[in-house]
Specification:
The chain is α+β, with helices and mostly antiparallel strands. The protein has 3 helices and 5 strands. Strands 2-1-5-4-3 form a 5-stranded antiparallel sheet, with helices on both faces. A hairpin with a 4-residue loop joins strand 1 and strand 2. The longest helix is centred in the middle third of the chain and has 21 residues. The two termini are 17 Å apart.
Length: 111
């Protein structure tokens, strides 16, 4: 299974972006602003990771963004970012768990 197909197979996920912690875009499905989303998420995760380590919180794992346009979830394994937009009925904690499992089982080769 390709990793993007795996992302969309998770119940509650409406679009998906696969990126790097440096802000690079590796691929996307059903996301019109994929390049911008990957760049902003890469910056946010890198900044938060640096701050979390400095403060002794440990490594960054996930970020949930909630707003009027819906919910977005970013999960990182320190090299890759999975960025998904969630349907209104989605359960973010279950989606985050499924994303972490997918990161552990899929091998991704950057283009």
């Amino acid at each position: 299974m390709r990793i993007l197909e795996g992302l969309l197979a998770i119940p509650g996920v409406s679009s998906a972006v696969l990126g790097t912690t440096e802000g690079g875009l590796l691929g996307s499905v059903d996301e019109g602003d994929a390049e911008i989303l990957a760049a902003v998420a890469g910056f946010a995760v890198t900044s938060m990771s640096d701050g979390a380590e400095h403060l002794g919180f440990g490594e960054f794992r996930e970020l949930r963004v909630q707003g009027p346009a819906g919910n977005t979830l970013i999960v990182s394994d320190q090299r890759l970012l999975m960025i998904v937009r969630l349907e209104s009925k989605a359960q973010p904690s279950k989606v985050a768990e499924a994303l972490r499992e997918l990161l552990q089982t899929e091998v991704v080769v950057a283009p």
